From TrEMBL:
<dbReference type="GO" id="GO:0005886">
    <property type="term" value="C:plasma membrane"/>
</dbReference>
<dbReference type="InterPro" id="IPR017871">
    <property type="entry name" value="ABC_transporter-like_CS"/>
</dbReference>
<protein>
    <submittedName>
        <fullName>ATP-binding cassette domain-containing protein</fullName>
    </submittedName>
</protein>
<keyword id="KW-0067">ATP-binding</keyword>
<dbReference type="InterPro" id="IPR003593">
    <property type="entry name" value="AAA+_ATPase"/>
</dbReference>
<keyword id="KW-1003">Cell membrane</keyword>
<dbReference type="InterPro" id="IPR003439">
    <property type="entry name" value="ABC_transporter-like_ATP-bd"/>
</dbReference>
<dbReference type="InterPro" id="IPR018449">
    <property type="entry name" value="NIL_domain"/>
</dbReference>
<keyword id="KW-0547">Nucleotide-binding</keyword>
<dbReference type="Pfam" id="PF00005">
    <property type="entry name" value="ABC_tran"/>
</dbReference>
<dbReference type="GO" id="GO:0005524">
    <property type="term" value="F:ATP binding"/>
</dbReference>
<keyword id="KW-0472">Membrane</keyword>
<keyword id="KW-1278">Translocase</keyword>
<dbReference type="InterPro" id="IPR027417">
    <property type="entry name" value="P-loop_NTPase"/>
</dbReference>
<keyword id="KW-0029">Amino-acid transport</keyword>
<dbReference type="InterPro" id="IPR050086">
    <property type="entry name" value="MetN_ABC_transporter-like"/>
</dbReference>
<dbReference type="Pfam" id="PF09383">
    <property type="entry name" value="NIL"/>
</dbReference>
Amino acid sequence: MITIKGLKKTFTTKSNTIIAVDDINLNINKGEIFGVIGYSGAGKSTFIRLINRLEQPTDGNITIDGQEITDLNQKELRLSRQEIGMIFQHFNLLWSRTVRDNISLPLEIAGVPRVERLERVEELIKLVGLSGREDAYPSELSGGQKQRVGIARALANNPKVLLCDEATSALDPETTDSILKLLIDINKELGLTIILITHEMHVIRKICHRVAVMENGRVVEQGDVLDVFLHPKQQVTKKFVEQVMGDKEQDDAYEFLTTSYTTGKNIRLHFIGETTNQALISRVAKEFDVEINILQGKITQTQKGAYGTLVVNIDGENNELARAIEFIKSTSVEVEVAPNA
Ligand SMILES: Nc1ncnc2c1ncn2[C@@H]1O[C@H](COP(=O)(O)OP(=O)(O)OP(=O)(O)O)[C@@H](O)[C@H]1O
């Protein structure tokens, strides 16, 4: 759906030249939710603004659904922007217009006749869950409701792509969840391709299928969300994964646990994707003559399935213990046996 090749943006100021986006190459599939994560200054905002040419690229190409965005003149660009919706951290609503009139604005600009416009606005209000608030002004809405207006407005012209620029960063955790859920519903219902930028890994975990990690203007790592969570390669990615899983803390506790349980075997199980749904522990307890103690665990859900770790102590007669561990290894759960304390 979207192909980005050699994308580059430099800003020249009086004192120096800043390379904000540096040779980005990405392919984003139709209907996928693609996340870009990075710390402040990594170049995320510049990157997303290049996609709808709110910024002009210094070099490189962007193709959306076969159309070369980087080649368009101003008139073509205006038309093409109707196919690329965008939502913002601070909503960018018109304060003097009601909810209905904010959502209607892009339809007015596109020259949609009044009756059709009113119908479409009604549809959108229902879609984003704002029924009953049509006549309110932005100042009378909560942050979550304002972002719902932003989403409805962005979807008004049936775009092919929705760009989300830190769309939940100004919201509290509960409201963030409800907006992320709305984005997931819209992605599923309309098959809409969504690109979002964020500095929060839990946003990536909750809604993205794939993720790219940005640092100093470059994409330093990308892949399926589950893969990146399980096997982060770059230091910056490891830090983001820790934001969600708190790995460092868990490792300290793991060391403590494995030195406290001195009989049997202490093992760490890494559950990936669908395997978390298997009743693994109860099967082992039933089929083998062993005792299993769950010492610690954390399982979390991503759009591509669940993943997490469980630390257990298995105790029993040596042979039976070995058989039980072999059995666990034969499933798709990754097993790590701690050396005996
Ligand atoms: N208009 C501009 N003129 C000069 N430098 C700019 C401009 N816009 C961005 N930059 C610089 O480009 C780099 C990337 O900025 P960008 O805003 O894209 O990063 P970011 O990852 O989105 O960070 P944040 O989340 O803090 O906005 C920064 O060093 C920034 O100072």
